Amino acid sequence: MENWDNIRFFLAVARSGSVRGAALALRVTHSTVLRRISQLEAQLGARLFEKLPSGYALTGAGEEIFELSGTMESISSQLQSRVFARDQSLSGSLRIALPPSLATDLLMPDLADFTKLHPAIEMQVNTSYRAVNLTTRQADVAIRLVYDQMSLPQHLIGSRLEDVYRGVYVAKSLLICEYDDVRWIKKKEDGELPSWAAAIQLGKNKPPVLVDELSSQVAAARAGLGVTILPCFVGDSDPQLERLWGSSVEYYGTIWLLTLDETRKTKRIKEFIEFIKLRIKSHRAELSGNI
Fold first, then answer.
1. What is the pLDDT of residues 186-209, one digit of tens each?
2. What is the C-alpha separation between 152 and 157, in angstroms, rounded?
3. What are the Cα distances from residue 107, in Å, to 112, 150, 248, 273?
């Protein structure tokens, strides 16, 4: 087991190209990654990485180990999934991955209800916008907001659930007469405004306010820094915000539930999937902006 753990650390460094990236992916310290790599190199009697200014590069020996390790990882994951699928108890761990906004603004009360129904299940909630690897059991179930169905991994079992809509929101404290001088609040990766939002003809003469992530975007809107585009389930539930009068709601993406074929046979996974599908369906009005 220890040897395999060392190989997991090796794969994480090889894939990220850095010790820091591996530490973040594995949720361990920088020093733990270095120690495990040193142990593996000592066991194999070969240097596996060369440290360059740009990061960690595989040596010749490292390239060979990388190819073999990928095969080992795949076989190990298949074995774990098949053993896991035989578990028909309603106890044990349940790992769920979903975006922070879906967790904090929509589904956390539903997750709480599930734990009340099944107190012997240990729920582990991973809230991140980064995709998780279900094959290596970083999660048992992933709930994703998908913008392009073609981007879904073909090896996963997926259920298309509810469509999500978005609209333009503004602080209730911002007076209508101030709209002519308003700014757009955008996340840095958003790029140009979509045509339906640009047609509102606001903020044409002002540079936008740029933020890093959704929570800062909401906070900036609450503070009256400007108008912003938010998923309806986020904007409509915030008592300090309101939808811009006269603006429309537009399709944003679709919630998908993803799991592995073997994993979904496990009783606690099956119970959760059936439960959360019904709960997400019950949120159709909030997700569509029809409240």
1. 998 888 888 888 888 787 778 899
2. 10
3. 9, 25, 25, 13
Kindly list the distances between the CA atom of residue 114 and the CA atoms of 89, 104, 202, 264, 286, in Å, as whole numbers in the listed order.
15, 16, 44, 17, 20
**Residues constituting the chain:** 291
Q: Which of 85, 119, 140 is the last residue of a domain?
A: 85
CA 170 to chain CA centroid, nearest Å: 26
Asked whether residue 276 falls in the same domain as residue 149, the answer is: yes
Determine if the pTM surpasses 0.90: no
C-alpha span between 107 and 116 (Å, rounded): 15
Among 291, 217, 290, 281, which residue's Cα sits nearest to residue 255?
A: 281
Q: pLDDT tens digit string along 57-93?
A: 899 888 888 877 766 666 566 656 555 455 556 788 8
Co-location of 14 and 135 in the same domain: no
Residues 150-185 have pLDDT tens digits of 777 777 888 999 999 999 999 998 866 666 678 899
| Number of folded domains that form the chain | 2
* 44 within 8 A of 38, measured Cβ to Cβ: no
Supply the range of the domain harboring residue 185. Answer: 90-291
